[in-house]
Specification:
2 copies of one chain form a homodimer. Chain A contains 15 helices and 25 strands. Chain A has about 550 residues and is α/β, with parallel strands linked by helices. In chain A, a hairpin with a 5-residue loop joins strand 19 (about 415-420) and strand 20. In chain A, helix 1 runs antiparallel to helix 2 (about 40-60), helix 2 crosses helix 3 (about 75-85) and helix 7 packs across helix 8. Chain A starts with 12 loop residues before the first helix and ends in a 9-residue tail after the last helix. At the A-B interface, helix 1, strand 9, helix 7 and strand 16 of A face helix 1, strand 9, helix 7 and strand 16 of B.
Chain lengths: ~550, ~550
């Protein structure tokens, strides 16, 4: 027997309708690419999102056709979020930091029909447009009078000219909530990028979850600065959760330097900011020498990589700002865990609380997670056993766009590629990437742990730990080290430095000094490349 | 094109799984009917909910079969919430305050197969059990040794004996998320009760929404005291939102007097309590003379009826507790609005904020609302225009169980039967019940406003305003008044008392002194009965 409740599909259009009807005068503020501040309201976003929808209808774009963006965080990007998905098309946010060849490859693979870009990226588009065979309309996200006369891009128009003549009334179509709404390619370190294809349902459920007090705690009393880019997994879903709650949005545009971000936080009364550690490092670097303080900022959510403890301390103690670790992936829409404490942790000492805050956090309801050993057997949640992290839930992918790479699931669970521990309270901590972990004598050694110890040595600028084949132990760790300019340390000194800092059997067998460690486009170490460079390397004594 | 996300139905079983896996040692504390305090964890709830499921399987109860409860807020009731719905059956929570005849009628209409009751209600069950023809198992929610030898109820067993021998392992079935999960009859003032039949989907979406910061703001740092009964619209969904977040639950059982509630709040570190104004009145009545304070309570959500401003003030100013108005209905699962302020309201004076706090609040995302005039035309959200309040959303009913009363919807909207205003910021305020509003010369007069003025007169104990047919104005208001014992006031004095307190045309045409105003089982005035009593009444001058 079915319940007798109203059937209303979970659609992204309902978010912008809600924001307009109930938070019409709520502010959306953007620092534009042009440098000035743009200020309008949720009612304006809704009105212009409907113009976007009418413009797409006018182009005869079909249901699920892809509209791409190559853009910073700003109001026009926000209008596209709602206008494109709301009208049934798929918003494809492209990461402009990728190699131009890869951008063209992605646009072709996604079969993008429209591509909207910030003027920052005009040279990039000029370089790649001829290779993007499916794009039939290029749109520059700028005022009509800012468009250069001769860009060499056929048919290029400004966004304002594109939507300017459109009606601002529109009836959002109603369709299956499982319809595709948006897509995002992952920047894998090997092979071609693969795309997560989100649905309206997954997006709305994620937005509800993200707004909860134990997650990003989004309310109508917040002014949110998403420093995390809208081209990267939908800025962690903040545009959707903000519309759902009527929160004020403050967009930084391309200006992510400490001074610009600080000024925006203060001028707009930002209460909550979200981003990666490097941005906060720049922010603190600007504030500290000038003795600046925050007057409204209450909390930051930090994801992308682990936040250094010193930064958590600085935010909390020097500035009274709560720092929350988050963990997620493109394949998870992206949020999987947030590090908020439980009632019982209030009694813990500051040191013990800090130990918890350094973890990636607890599962959000909707997501379930487990850790397994190499045979796929579930490991205990004891905070010690480390295993491959698997997740499932309604905002986790089932497969990649066009089924690239086949089915990624293992018995319905998505393998994250991370190695983690989970403690009895459900706090998860990433210890390594699966492909980087060193399997030695049936035990696992975290490459990150080994690197962190080397990095603590005053002469070491960068360290990368990799496993080398060993006839008896399967693998043994070695550490590749870049020395700081003018600093000296010998192999034996560094090996000795590990004594007492980790179990004896985890100490690397060797140190290899290198001039540089190969890095990818997003700053991650490319250990595959490093292994190629060391193909002729032999472990001492073998 | 569909998105490529995991398909996972939204099922109530996933809530208790989540609470067990990620908040296993989170506490659930109950004051039992027996008077003592019972204390266990979410892992225990999960374990015993699985025993309930096994017991129901053992009885060969089919999918969607109804299991009824007649019980206070307590841990066994909580286990039934998850065990019954989780295993695919429908939990039917019966309001024990209804007339016994009505309870029997409801049990038969719902075709309840199992009925679980607290020992408080043994005499009630002894009186009605023979009339409940579909019930094949009566279960007393008590320890095995508390069951009287001879109750006269055939086959009666204790809950502990019923689940005691059951295995505590169970695989929750997976089914359509639109399946019925629970039901609740409304206590209408006319006709037979009608039931809302909730689904798993509507329950989970409501639980997400209810947990949001602008709604009940439920987190793992909360200890929640739901004084609102679990037999009344699922205690506003708190059991579900608590499992979703791992919040501590504190159940008061039948002891709702000020002393018991106060002691529980202090002993268990309650941070958030939810209930109707009368319970808080008793609580403050206990605390004030003794000079008691709260040490952990942060906020209360008050619904069911409007909270007197003096009580809001007392909670805020004397006790530092935030009071939030909520509005909802059985047909809305029940939450429709919560009165949380927006960012821009922080700047308002305390008086101006209070004006907002007295309203029923803003729409929760998921619900949409509008007000319409007698022709069904939408009225402006100006805070002045009053009209019939209509709502829609995924946790609003589409129809009643067994289609009783036909289709209640008007163009997809559910008419709430309330008359309300909505201001430009979306704050809704109930001004009357539709059937009580007086339509005079094309304008509406709120019966509540007219009653409130009379009630402010020192000689008036109770007042009920009703409309009387008028050849020119359609209707004109009169006010029926019960005088305080020993107090005196004349018709003309009371009419004069309205001068300057309301618009001239809204002043009642007459005052009728009565000995008593007929009240229903839940304490609401029965204006239909009052009208019957006044069938021969004539307006002065006609």
């Amino acid at each position: 027997m079915l319940g007798q409740m109203q059937q209303q599909p979970l659609l992204i259009s309902s978010l912008i309708d809600f924001a307009e009807r109930h938070h019409g005068d709520g502010e959306v503020v953007s620092r534009r690419v042009e440098g000035d501040i743009h200020r309008y309201t949720w009612a304006d976003v809704a009105r212009r999102a409907r113009q976007v929808a009418n413009a797409l209808d006018g182009m005869k774009l079909g249901m699920s056709d892809r509209v791409a963006t190559l853009a910073w965080n700003g109001y026009r990007h926000l209008e596209l979020y709602f206008g494109v998905s709301g009208s049934g098309r798929v918003l494809h946010t492209i990461n402009p930091r990728l190699h131009p060849e890869q951008i063209a490859w992605i646009a072709n693979h996604a079969e993008d029909q429209v591509l909207c870009f910030d003027m920052t990226f005009l040279p990039l588009i000029q370089a790649v447009h001829a290779k993007c065979s499916t794009v039939r309309q290029w749109i520059a996200l700028c005022d009509a009078d800012r468009l250069p006369a001769d860009t060499g891009i056929p048919g290029l128009i400004s966004y304002e000219a594109w939507i300017g003549g459109q009606k601002d009334s529109y009836t959002w179509p109603v369709f299956d909530e499982n319809s595709a709404s948006s897509m995002c390619y992952t920047s894998g370190t090997t092979g071609n990028p693969k795309a997560a294809l989100y649905s309206h349902r997954s997006t709305i459920l994620h937005a509800y979850a993200a707004a909860m007090p134990d997650v990003m705690c989004v309310s109508a009393r917040d002014a949110i600065l998403p420093v995390v880019p809208m081209f990267h997994v939908n800025a962690w879903g903040i545009p959707y959760s903000a519309a759902m709650t009527g929160a004020k949005l403050v967009f930084p545009g391309p200006a992510l330097d400490g001074k610009s971000v600080y000024e925006l936080i203060e001028a707009e009364g930002v209460t909550f900011a979200a981003g990666v550690p490097t941005v906060w490092q720049m922010l603190l670097g600007h504030m500290k020498p000038a003795g600046l303080k925050f007057s409204t900022l209450q909390r930051t959510v930090i994801g992308g990589s682990a936040c250094p403890p010193a930064m958590i301390d600085a935010f909390r103690e020097d500035y009274g700002v709560d720092v929350l670790h988050a963990w997620g992936m493109t394949e998870l829409s992206p949020l999987g865990t947030l590090c908020t404490l439980k009632n019982k942790h209030n009694k813990l000492s500051a040191d013990e609380q800090m130990k918890l805050r350094l973890k990636q956090g607890r599962c959000i309801y909707g997501i379930d997670m487990k850790i397994v050993d190499s045979e796929g057997k579930a490991l205990p949640h004891d905070g010690k056993s480390a295993g491959d992290l698997l997740v499932k839930g309604p905002w986790v992918i089932a497969s990649y766009f066009k089924q690239e790479g086949g089915s990624p699931l293992v018995d319905g669970w998505f393998p994250t590629g991370d190695v983690a521990t989970i403690d009895a309270d459900g706090f998860m901590q990433i210890t390594d990437r699966s492909k980087d972990v060193i399997k030695s004598g049936g035990e696992w050694i975290s490459s990150i742990d080994i690197e962190n110890i080397a990095m603590a040595h005053p002469a070491v600028a960068m360290a990368a730990c990799i496993g080398i084949r060993h006839p008896k132990w399967d693998e043994r760790p070695i550490v590749c080290v870049v020395k700081k300019p003018g600093a000296e340390v010998t192999r034996d000194q560094l090996i000795a430095f590990y004594e007492g800092k980790t179990a004896k059997w985890q100490i690397p067998d060797d140190v290899v000094f290198v001039d540089a460690i190969p890095l990818g486009a997003t700053g991650k170490m490319l250990k595959t490349k490093l292994r190629e460079q060391l193909v002729d390397y032999k472990l001492p004594g073998l």
